[in-house]
Specification:
- With 394 residues, the chain is mainly β.
- The protein has two helices and 29 strands.
- Strands 12, 13, 14, 15 and 16 form a five-stranded antiparallel sheet that branches.
- The longest helix has 5 residues.
- The protein is globular.
- The N terminus is likely disordered.
């Protein structure tokens, strides 16, 4: 794979990490006995009514249902504001897609709708906050664009401050890459840039972010041609979906949905993002249909996890210290079908896998010595689960 375009030196220091890092929580001297958990679902052609609330036991990993948090159409991605007062939801409903703001009552787990705005694109599939918690970023999959909404003082969403359509040459897969498909969006550590994974373009695009105005503009490398987008490039047809980062920000791990791969990028001292490894998420010899879905780094930075839909497993990788490269340790069955999403608990003790087509969330204990997954036997029932969010404020 070709070396990607040159990157500004200060981006090394501003390398992106997932907002409100779980690693910090893992190192805290004390942790609560339980967390509130919200589970987003698909409601179209399922028995689901919307968003469901659970109490999560930090000692056992067990989920105890608290009931329906709120009725909502196809709430496929849910995020909870760091103040614990509000939640924001992507309602993935084609041309009628919306973004919803809710007030969150943590003790009961109930959500009360504050307002709802058009997503400004089709099928929003990922939301995140900027580092100040003042804006919500939206990735619209089908329309291939991203949007920014301000969060008002009362938690409602304000009128959008940015809408940008991803641009570039599409990949070779005619069925999946007929146009841009934004699938993931997160800010850089310094809140000056926003990174966007586009499945249709085989790129991780980089936009400048004005945190005062909430605007996005395409970034460009110093030696780029006019209007040349600033990005990291994957192999043709990889279909980047979601992204994870090393704890120090020196390595970026991009999940290729179409080819079932993880591509490792190094952020070098000579200011380039370059791919140093591409590794399969599947065991050797597997030849069936598979689409990867979620990727996450363990809080200790030693292990990386990715979900396989088709093989219906979680791939467990060891991270080579200092080098950032991966070694596949195991593909652990999730005990259900189509694990679209999974989440690692704040302490890094358990992994919760959501099996969309089996209506279950299955809990695995993470072996503290090896990173491998051990089923606890706890299985929570919820119709068509596709997203799980921890309320870290309570």
């Amino acid at each position: 794979m070709k070396i990607t375009r040159r990157i500004f030196a200060f981006l090394i220091l501003a390398a992106p990490v997932v907002l409100f890092s779980l690693a910090g929580r893992a190192n805290s001297p004390a942790s609560p006995r339980s967390y509130l958990v919200l589970v987003g679902t698909y409601t179209h052609k399922t028995e689901s009514k919307g968003i469901y609330a659970f109490s999560y036991d930090t000692e056992t990993g067990k989920l105890t249902p608290k009931g329906l948090a709120a009725e909502a159409p196809d709430p496929s991605w849910v995020i909870i504001h760091p103040n614990g007062k509000w939640a924001y939801v992507a309602n993935e409903s084609g041309k009628q897609s919306t973004i919803s703001a809710f007030a969150l009552d943590a003790p009961s787990g109930k959500l009360t709708l504050l307002n709802q705005l058009p997503a400004l694109g089709e099928d929003p599939c990922y939301l995140s906050f900027d580092k100040s918690g003042k804006f919500v970023f939206v990735a619209n999959y089908t329309s291939g664009n991203v949007a920014v909404f301000p969060i008002l003082a009362d938690g409602k969403l304000g009128e959008h401050t940015a809408v940008v359509t991803n641009a570039g040459a599409v990949g070779p897969n005619k069925e999946r890459q007929e146009g841009p498909h934004a699938h993931w969006i997160e800010p850089s550590a310094g809140n000056k840039y926003v990174y966007v994974s586009d499945l249709g373009l085989d790129h991780i695009l980089i936009y400048k972010f004005d945190a005062a105005k909430g605007t996005l503009t395409p970034a460009a490398a110093p030696d780029a041609k006019p209007n040349d987008p600033f990005s990291a490039t994957l192999s043709p047809g990889a279909g980047p979906r979601h992204v994870a980062f090393s704890r120090d920000g020196k390595f970026m791990y991009v999940l290729g949905e179409i080819k079932s791969t993880v591509t490792v990028f190094a952020n070098d001292a000579n200011e380039t993002y370059r791919s140093i490894q591409t590794i399969s998420t599947l065991p050797e010899g597997f030849s069936g249909r598979n689409d990867t879905a979620e990727i996450a780094m363990h809080p200790n930075g030693k292990w990386l996890y990715a979900s396989n839909r088709g093989h219906d497993s979680i791939a467990v990788f060891a991270v080579e210290p200092g080098k950032g490269t991966l070694k596949l340790l195991a593909d652990v069955p999730t005990g259900g079908k189509e694990p679209r999403h999974f989440a690692i608990d704040p302490a890094g003790k358990f992994l919760l896998a959501e099996n969309e087509n089996s209506d279950t969330v299955v809990t695995f204990r993470i072996d503290p010595a090896t990173g491998k997954l051990i089923p606890t036997g706890d299985v929570a029932k919820v119709p068509a689960p596709v997203c799980l969010a921890f309320d870290l404020a309570h």
